Amino acid sequence: MDAGNSPFWKSLGFQTPTAEILDRLPAEWKNESDDGWLTFQLKNEDVINAAFEKEFTTFIASEKKEIARITGQAQTIKTIVTVVAFGIAIICFAALIWLFAHRNPFAR
Fold first, then answer.
1. Which residues, 6+ apart, have CB-to-CB distance to 16 below 8 Å?
2. Phi and psi for 98 in degrees, rounded to 5?
């Protein structure tokens, strides 16, 4: 008696596989003349895929927020560095002007 006709396995939830499930079997396991396969679904792939899509969407949204936050921080730092650089440049030019006004090297 093959497993396909056994009421014991069917009472435990094993079912005759669909053509899609049989197509996913490894080549070594395929036997075209054997109709005795029974399968038992261990996980619901549709639920797993839906959960994955939901988690992936949430992940992408959080990453976009993180990128926006980091970009904002980078812009702030860039602005601060630019202001400081211009401040230093203005101080240097003022010191240079003061030096030329009070210590004219060409006056000797």
1. 4, 37, 38, 39
2. -65, -45
Question: Does residue 60 lie in a domain region?
Answer: no
Render each residue's pLDDT in the chain as its tens digit; 108 residues. 555 567 888 888 888 888 888 787 777 777 665 667 788 888 888 888 899 999 999 999 999 999 999 999 999 999 999 999 999 999 999 999 888 888 765 655
Task: Say if 52 falls within a structural domain.
Answer: no
Residues 107, 45: Cα–Cα separation, whole Å = 89
Number of domains in the chain: 1
Predicted TM-score (pTM) of this structure: 0.49
